Amino acid sequence: MKPxxxxxxxxxxxxxxxGCQDSTPPGxxxxxxxxxxxxxxxxxxxxxxxxxxxxxxxxxxxxxGAELRVVPVGATPLSDTLRVAGKVDFDEYRxxxxxxxxxxxVIEIDAHLGQVVxxxxxxxxxxxxxxxxxxxxYLKARAQADLQARSVERARQLFAADVxxxxxxxxxxxxxxxxxxxxRGAADQLRVLGMSSAAIGRLGGSGAINSVTPVVSTMAxxxxxxxxxxxxxxxxxxxxxxxxxxxxxxxxxEVPEQQAALVKAGQAVTIEVPALGERLTGKxxxxxxxxxxxTRTVTVRSQVANASRQLKPAMLATMLIQARPVERLVVPSxxxxxxxxxxxxxxxxxxxxxxxxxxxxxxxxxxxRPVLAGLxxxxxxxxxxxxxxxxxxKRKELE
Length: 399
Hints:
- This protein is an alpha+beta fold.
- The protein is built from 6 helices and 23 strands.
């Protein structure tokens, strides 16, 4: 209404009331005065004196089409899901680092990265003067032991013929014992340098010195590292190859120390690998007993089968750990109403009367949301029909 028309209406009403005032009894005029003033105020301002309705309060209208169901807020054991960053790693029980058993020069490379090898396969060949000298020492010790053995045999015959005395026989037997010990020591040295007992036996039979020795695989698996090149001089302390069995891998993660008490070995875990776009299942096989002082985290480890070789060491992963259950207030997920960027639930405040109440909830866990703030255990909430009732509240608010 325009301001001029509104002013004219007020003046007209005032004149009519004044004209009727003489014919109205005094008591009636006194009683009508407040109502008249209120009416004039409402006409002048366009607003009643009554307070506006609560926009969060909604009454279920008669014949409301949606089915409503109200239940009390309940407590139940609930497990939090811990999301921690991790990575795929080698199973340390299925990986071996292979080096040379002697000092020498690499003259041949037989295995390359990614190659699948078996136990005993040759990875590289080394020429070692150290091995040749050890073989020569063994042949000398063997020859000396054979010589002393024949000398003792003759001494026994001469002693039986009473040609030599017992002292001479004992001296020769002592020399044989020393020579035999030196032979055994030389053979042990060859074993340390990587020669098998069969190879040592062939060396003693042929007497041919061979200073070339192979570097062989001690595990069936895949060559994942090669740290040697032709012509390189290597020593027994050098790791030349790393061979790993990738049919089973570890997934390790770092749990913050504040949450370390919620995890223990044997718990089921879900593993997300972004590179694969899928989820894997496993269980914790290890929880560290110490805290990393630099990251303030505790290392946990899971074991995962990898028959298809899709999981590759150093891949990024996320580990979802189901923590131990804790008694907590929960609300069913269908009871939650999103209004703006906040979670709300309808709390029953009377018969067919509900109030939209803001709450703070945890993440969904099996269609249940843990209550962090905003609800008490003695309150009753709407768990079915909340969406339709919220639409009714918005409609009333617009009217």
